[in-house]
Design goal:
The chain is mostly helical. The chain is about 70% helix and about 0% strand. The protein contains eleven helices and two strands.
């Protein structure tokens, strides 16, 4: 029995294990630690594919296992995190008269799980979509998970005041973010590949622009930059698609 063919699958299981730990923290409303473990899961998610290609042991089992692990780390956990954000708004502010008595806390927080449903649909579609071998159509679940999981971390960084705090403690905004997330996951929007095949400006101009802007945003704004970078990736892809169409006549 060849050991090397099991190495990528073992790394994928580390992704799943990270997602399960993140899920425990999310259930206990420790969304900062949940964010950390989601990042760990995404880290392992990158390396399982890398080692599968290097060791030339890519197969159907690895593909399915990867999607199942991503479903937990990048699908279930963000949904639970958004549920917790919506359910605990009453503890952050009394601006919206939220309580179990008026029905809000009994129903609306479950809207957060639309992120999980959309992630599941995207992962299933990805496995049978032959167009997404070198790039993506719709936002990948790990990128979406970073987008959603960064929100409670940013909220914690605000110190309970300011424009960003007001924005992220608004239930209508959070519902809108949930719906936007579900849309971006499954939208027919081609997104450029982040893989750099040739280290030259001509062939990787858009990747280098994205990388430079992302590094600058992270340097200046830290956690606050994460959702901006994800949205910038989508917007830059749309601009790139429009430019390519015009160039091709």
């Amino acid at each position: 029995m060849s050991v090397k063919k099991h190495i990528p699958n073992f790394i994928t299981l580390l992704n799943l294990a990270s997602g399960l730990i993140a899920l425990v923290y999310a259930f206990n409303t420790n969304l900062q630690m949940a964010f950390f473990w989601v990042c760990m899961g995404i880290f392992f998610d990158f390396w399982d594919g890398f080692f599968a290609r290097i060791l030339k042991v890519q197969g159907k089992l690895g593909l399915q296992l990867d999607s199942l692990a991503d479903m937990v780390t990048s699908g279930v956990v963000p949904g639970v995190a958004m549920y917790q954000l919506l359910a605990n708004i009453a503890d952050l502010t009394d601006d919206y008269n939220l309580s179990i008595d008026n029905g809000y806390l009994g129903l609306l927080p479950y809207v957060g799980f639309i992120i999980t449903l959309a992630s599941c649909y995207r992962l299933a579609k990805f496995n049978i979509d032959e167009r997404q071998t070198d790039s993506f159509i719709g936002l990948p679940t790990p990128a979406n998970a970073l987008f959603i999981m960064s929100l409670p971390v940013i909220l914690n960084q605000t110190g309970g005041e300011g424009l960003v705090f007001d924005f992220l403690s608004n239930p209508f905004i959070l519902v809108g973010i949930s719906l936007l997330s579900a849309y971006l996951l499954n939208a027919e929007i081609p997104l450029f590949s982040l893989k750099v095949k040739y280290f030259n400006w001509k062939n990787n101009k858009i990747q280098f622009i994205f990388l430079i802007v992302s590094v600058l945003l992270l340097s200046f704004f830290q956690y606050f930059a994460i959702p901006v970078i994800i949205l910038f990736y989508v917007v830059l892809s749309v601009i790139n698609n429009m430019t390519a169409k015009q160039a091709n006549g």
